[in-house]
From TrEMBL:
Residues 267-409 form the MmgE/PrpD C-terminal domain. Residues 67-235 form the MmgE/PrpD N-terminal domain. Pfam families: MmgE_PrpD_C (PF19305), MmgE_PrpD_N (PF03972). GO terms for molecular function: lyase activity. SUPFAM superfamilies: 2-methylcitrate dehydratase PrpD. This is MmgE/PrpD family protein. PANTHER family: 2-METHYLCITRATE DEHYDRATASE, 2-METHYLCITRATE DEHYDRATASE-RELATED. Belongs to the PrpD family. It comes from Mycolicibacterium agri. It comes from the Bacteria. InterPro entries: MmgE/PrpD_sf, MmgE/PrpD_sf_1, MmgE/PrpD_sf_2, MmgE_PrpD, MmgE_PrpD_C, MmgE_PrpD_N.
Amino acid sequence: MTSGRSTTTRQTQGLSGLLGQTIAGMSADVIGEETWTALKSHLLDCITLIIAGRTSPRVRRAVQATEMHDPAFALSLACGALGLDDFDEATRTHPGAALVPALIAAAAGRSAPVTGKDFAVSLLVGYETFKWLGAAMDARHMHQRGRHPSTMVGMPAVAVAVARLLGSAKEEIQGAVGVGAALACGLTEFDAKEDMRAVQTAWAASSGVKAAQLAKAGFRPSPYALEAAGGLLKGSTASVPPIEEFGEQPFAVELVSFKPYAHFSDLHPATSALLRAVQGRRVMAEEVATMHVHITPTAVARLHRALPPRTSKEAKRCAEYVLAACLLGDGSGEPVPSPTIDDTRIGDRSVLALAEQVQVVADLPEPAGSDDHHAVDRQVVARVEVVLRSGEVCSGTSTGYPGDGRDPALRWTLDDARNRFDALALPAISQAGITPQAVLSIATDLPRLADVRPTAQAIAALPYAG
């Protein structure tokens, strides 16, 4: 329960003032070993995705069309291009794709040194704001209201993270919250290729930087920009978490999930269960009589169910199609965890034929604690049975998926992030004009770096042509 004194302070300062005061007082002293690991891992993974995704057609088209120098916007588009950017199950947001590009761009443009610890605290603050504000805005159910949580929450979250990086005073951080709240927008009526979802997230990164800069320049929005009748929280049915919960351990960044597969995150547990079911053996498509997929009602409710899918967006949300594509792989019998699903493949007859053999049933109970950040009790949330024509049944279950931030046993380590860097970034880095060690050092040596600007400037200057 919030004390009378806290209530009075909230009434006089407003929520944005309390956030500004709390964030201004945070330092690297609060970061323990597990939090450092999470910060380094998420930072490295986002940079990996930026390097690997920078030459995607979407990024090239956007940069060429706008003809503007906006590193935060371009880097964010690149970070989300492969569909692997980190994901917060509690708020249904993609924090890293907005935060990391914005902070890299802001650090690259600073005239004064930015230490690794300052960068880390700013990133920590950003993830915390996503968590706290996401809870206040009921971001988990925001899609049902037609609003895009990654951008609605993302703009003020990026604004305060960048404000912290710029060394802003608490009044300036309060201003950044208000400006970010005023600029927050985002719809879930996406196009078939989901270009607009990516553009909205990139806009949150770009606008968040500008919000922090405007606040630094003296713009002072209402201190009640969050909670007032005309504020950002208007229409939310959620309770506003006490400000004392901001920065409570475990920190939000530790609980945000890495995406091991490029398709819809609600299908990740079933994908993991399928891979376990056929682990160590080859299964050809013609051997499969049927596949039974058991998942929770909540997961099923978010899926696209019709075959054949009309767009890659529908295909990535279709359990039948995704799991058939995973099992089919390249046709050799070796499953592929993250198959390529784009408009050129959605009509693949072999995938569609196998997809017709997949039966999805919503008969698993919802896990306890699934509405918050805390780990579920290792309850099975997906079970897959591949029934072969020979009569043999290959079964696999999953309590989550590799990289699931809610479960300490499944969370990625810095080694996991390094493995993805080696697989995705190294092949592209020779054309990027930056050395592997420079990229790795900004993550692995983050607490000891005297100045992150040289690496940030190199990343911000990456070319977007092939």
